[in-house]
Amino acid sequence: MASPARPAASARRESAAIRDSRPAGPARPPGERHITIALALTVNGKRKRVSVPPMKRLLDVLREDLELPGSKEGCGEGECGACTVLMDGEPVNSCLVAAGQCEGAQILTVEGLARENRLSALQQAFVEMGGAQCGICTPGMLVSAHALLRAARGRVPGEDEVREALAGNLCRCTGYQKIVDAVRAAAGGTRGKRRAPKGG
Amino acid sequence: MRSALSTLELRRPRSVDEALDALHQSIAGRRLTPLAGGTDLFVYLNAGTFEGRRFLDLTRLSELSRIRLGPAGARIGALATFRAIRTHKVLRGRFPALAAAAAEVGAWQIQSRATLAGNIANASPAGDSLPVLLAHDATVHVRSVRGARAIEFARLYRGYRDLDLAPDELITEIELPEPPKGAVPFFRKVGTRRAQSISKVVFCGLAAQGKGGALEHVRLAYGSVAPVPLRATRAEQALAGRKVSAPAAAAARKALAEDIAPIDDIRSDREYRMAVAGNVLEQFLRTLG
Q1: Considering CB atoms only, which of B10, B55, B196 is closest to A167?
Q2: How many CB pairs under 8 A join A and B?
Q3: Most buried residue, A49, A167, B283, B289, by CB count within 10 Å?
Q4: Which residue of A has its CA nearest to B195?
C-alpha cells in the first residue's frame, strides 16, 4: 500500500517489515529477505535463547549460534549420522531438523555427555577400547549409543541390538567391532577389560 | 549454513483447522509445503533441489500422532513416527508387517522423525511402508477447509510421484482394516544393507488359507518395481483358490512378470528386480506352506 506521495514513510514501513520476525502474509513478494525467530530450547540441560532463521538446520544452530561444534556434518542427507543429537530423548539427524521445530525441545549433544570434564563411562570405554580412530563419526556414535544404553536401563544390550541401534552411524575407520565392544562394555561396567582375541 | 535456508518461511499452526486455513490461503500465492519429520524434505533442501520457499510445520498438531486400535482395525495418525509404529505393542502384534517395515525405514534417527503420512506424501515408488498399506487395503483420510474425505490408498497415486490430492488437502489419518481371521502377513525389503538403504525391491504379502488350504484374500504388493507402488493383481489371481504348491508358485511368478515393470537405475537393474520380486513371492508362499 505504498503511497507515492509519502515515499519516506513507505520506506520506513518496508524496513520495519523486514525486521519483523514473524512469517509474512501471502501478499509479500518473493525476495532474499532474511527471516528470524526467537527460539527457546534446552541444550545439554541449559536453557538457551537464540535468534535464528526458522528453517536453519538444528545442526547449524548448534555449531554456529550455540558454539557447540561437537556434532559434525558428514553427508547432509541423513545417511551418515555424524550430526546425531537427542531431541526429547530420541536420536535424530540434526541436519534434517528445522530450528523452528525445536521450540521448547530438550537437545542433548556429545558435549553434554561428560560431567565437569569427567568422561561418561561410554566415552571412557571408547577411549580405552579403540572405539574411535579419525573421530568424525564419534560424536554421533556416542549419542546414539547413549540413547541405546538409556533405553536398556542397565541391561547389557546384545551385539545385534547394538549394531541395529548404531546402523544409522557410519564409520569408515574402525570396522565397527571395537565400537560395539565399547558400547557393551560400558553397559556392563566392564570397560577396560579387553575383548579376548578370537581364535589362534 | 546454506544461506538460502535463511530466507525460507515456516508457519507453525497449533491446530489442524489453523493449518488447513493457512494451507488453503496459500494456494493463490506462494504455496506452503507441509513439513513433518523433514527426513525427505530436508534432503532436497540441503541439496538445493527444492523450489518451495514457505513451509507449514505440522509437528505441533499432536492430535495427528495418535495410534488407535479397535475391533475394526487400526487408525494411525498422519504424524505417527515409524519409531512410534514399531514400538507400539498392540499395533505390532496385530499388524506385524507394518511394524517390520517401520523397523527398516532408514535407521533409528530417521525413524524418530519420519512419519507414515510423510512416506505416503513423498510418494516415492520405493517407500518402505507403502506395499504394507496396499496389502492391507488401507484408506487415507484427508481434510481441507472444504471438509473431510477418504481415499482408498490403492487409488491415491495417479502416476510417478503424482498424488490424487488437492493442494490444500492434508492427510490426517491412515486406516488399516482388520485382516480376515487367519490371514498371514509377510514383509521383505531387499536392499544393499538392512539399514539406511533404499530398496531394490520391497514387498508385502497377505493371504489366508480356507478349507483344504485354498488361498483366499491374496494380496501381493510391491514397491520399487514400477512408477508407483502396486498390487500384483494377476499374480494374486493366479494363486486365489489354489493350494500352496510348486506349480501354483510358478504360475504366480509367470503372472507377476505382467504385473510389474521394473527398470534399470542406480540401485539395481530390471533383470535382478524381476528375479527378486519372484523370489520374495515364493518366500512368502513358503511361510504359508
Answers
A1: B196
A2: 124
A3: A167
A4: A167
Query: Given an 8 Å threshold on Cβ–Cβ distance, is B8 in contact with A35?
Result: yes
Rounded Cα–Cα distance for residues A134 and A173 (Å): 7
- DSSP letter for each residue of B200-232: SEEEEEEEEE-GGG-EEEEEEEEESSSSS-EE-
Q: Which residues of chain B have pLDDT under 70?
A: 1-3
The residue assigned the cell 508362499 is B285
Report yes or no: B275 at the A interface, CB cutoff 8 Å: no
Same domain flag for A125 and A108 = no
C-alpha torsion sign, points B243, B247, B253, B256: negative
Partners of B38 on chain A (C-beta within 8 Å) are 96-98, 101
CB-based contact A54 B10, cutoff 8 Å: yes
Q: Select the residue of B25, B28, B109 nearest A168 (Cβ to Cβ).
A: B109
Q: Is the minimum CB–CB distance between A181 and chain B shorter than 8 Å?
A: no
Question: B107 to chain A: which residues are within 8 Å by CB?
Answer: 81, 167-169
Q: How far is A131 from chain B (nearest CA, A)?
A: 20
ipTM of the complex: 0.94
Cell 471438509 found at: B147
Q: CA–CA separation, B58 vs A189, rounded Å?
A: 42
The closest CB to that of B108, out of A37, A53, A91, belongs to: A91
Tell which residue, B234, B71, B235, B229, has the closest CA to residue B160: B229
Level-2 CATH architecture, domain B184-288: 2-Layer Sandwich (3.30)
Q: Tens of pLDDT along B89-138? A: 999 999 999 999 999 999 999 999 999 999 999 999 999 999 999 999 99
Residue A173: give the domain boundaries.
121-188
Q: Where are the alpha helices (DSSP H) in chain A?
A: 7-19, 58-60, 121-129, 138-152, 159-165, 177-188
Q: What is the pTM of this model?
A: 0.90
**At A70, which CATH number?**
3.10.20.30
Count H helices, E strands: chain B? 11, 14
- Asked if A168 lies within 8 A of B110 by C-beta distance, the reply is yes
Distance from CA of A111 to the nearest CA of B (A): 19
The whole-number pLDDT of residue A22 equals 42
What total number of domains does chain A contain? Answer: 2
- A34 with B6: Cβ contact below 8 A: yes
Based on the fold, state whether residues A103 and A125 are members of the same structural domain. Answer: no
List, as one string, the DSSP characters of B51-115: ---EEEE-TT-GGGG-EEEETTEEEEETT-BHHHHHH-HHHHHH-HHHHHHHHTSS-HHHHHH-B
Q: In sequence order, which residues have a C-beta less than 8 Å from that of residue A160 and are 6 or more positions away?
A: none
